[in-house]
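Batch job 17 of 40 flagged for manual review because the log was empty.
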Amino acid sequence: MPRYEFKVIPAPRRGEKARGVKTTEERFALALSMVMNAMGSDGWDYVRADTLPVDERVGFTGTKTSFHNMLVFRRELDASATASTHVPVVEAMQSAPPRLGPAEVPAGAAPAVGPATPGLAAE
């Protein structure tokens, strides 16, 4: 079964100017085709476009949700690259240290406060 790696990039937001390309739709199509051709020349296959929500900060405490258009590409991994660099997600999650919630933080002494090098405190 082939294995793939994926790359997600933002879709172009503006069209590209070129000779003979006059309308907004034509300029945007040119920008999109330039991105897709550049990715294709590097071996990436276009999969789909997604519109995803992103929470952004507004001021000190506010947030707003905006939407971004993303292009998804994939390319097949070599069998040799798969064996040497591929780490399954389950293994990566198991090797990561567990995250502790506020109620699960172990009790103990507070860390010492002072200079990073003990010799600097004496000077």
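Reviewer: the log was empty due to a logging misconfiguration, but the result itself is present. Residues 1-78 form one domain. Unflagging and moving on to job 18.
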